[in-house]
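Ex. 9. Protein: CBS domain-containing protein.
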Amino acid sequence: MAVVSKVYVARLAGLAVLGPDGESIGRVRDVVVAVRLTGQQPRALGLAVELTTRRRIFVPMLRVTTIEPQAVTLNTGTVSLRRLHLRPGEALAIGQILDSRVRIDDPDLADLAGVDVTVVDLGIERTRTRDWVISRVAVRTGRRGLRRRGETHVVDWTHVHGLTPTDLNLPGQGVAQALQQFEGMRAADVANALRELPAKRRDEIATALDDERLADVLQELPPDDQTDVLKKLAPERAADVLEAMDPDDAADLLGELPDAEAESLLERMDPEDSEPVRRLLSHSPDTAGGLMTPEPIIVTASTTVAEALARVRDPDVTPAAASLVFVVRPPTATPTGKYLGCAHLQALLREPPAHLVGGIVDTDLSRLHPEDSLEAVTRYFATYNMVCGPVVDDQGHLVGAVSVDDLLDEILPRDWRESDSDDTGPIPRITGADIAGAGA
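Predicted structure tokens for CBS domain-containing protein:
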């Protein structure tokens, strides 16, 4: 295999990363670039590689042996599993530089002098000293006449002005390439990627996401990042995003804000969406009432098994919440009519679709109360081997349900999304077990 010496960074995204013996390590998600002062050629320092555990690590370019259409091969299996963190003066090529606006002074493109153009790709090249540098920049002009898109030109980096830390931090730089990279990714993975970006770029991407997608991503960010992003949104947009969030997650986020700010956002929300959030905020966050979701799967005894299973199959319902269907007398909106019991998912799967849920209600499962402490909730799940439990008030009304993921969010340290338990530096040759262990 020939040693590669030139490549465009956009073509690297998604390529498999292999060790010297062909073992899979992860996939390329970006290229880390040292953005220098004007007149100094930017260096490509290494790859942002996503492991199978979804963690992103840094792999120096000096470790790259070959780059082929389907894979990047390293010259060693010894890599650091430390999470990727950008240092001052570093930037992500795809996440920050592509889609940014620059100007060129190429004499062969005199008609573009002084005109803003958009960076669509970066050509990196290995030098005699084995360093990788940005040698070419692909740019696109704006639309002209009836053309749907502008023309693309490849120019030498020396004719490009705007690839400096100061220029990249200017407001209004494009985010199309970053958004395209996030398509199809889980919300938790997008949240991890956003955490690696400077606050400016993160806020630009958050602004560009639609309300529901941003709501999903916000729910996966640490509390401090959640509030930072929300405060950067216009108040009306912030209220729309809160409406798209699960009520318990919206309540947790509003609980991090000063009372006046939280109340202002609640007043802007639709009353139908703000009412369950207000009820959750009335409970202490370390009680069953503060942990619960007010929108579990709720049916009446006359609901058929087929209808109940259709509710369970909703892709927006988490596996833990889908493990129990709660049976009540009307009304079915929380706080419901009298709570009758629950139907376990396994029991529903064993019943003919036309049978009624009322015939398989479990009336013996203990209930949680809104005032139950965090310790009591933990003991409940451990005692009954459950991943979801009903929360019932003193009048016998179902007011919500606590799932094990709600409990874990409260038990784990506040910064659990940001900390790594195994940041111990380089390890010997990577194996599948090593990578799996990285997420333990």
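Check your answer against this statement. Residues 183-282 form a domain with the MgtE N-terminal fold fold (CATH 1.25.60.10).
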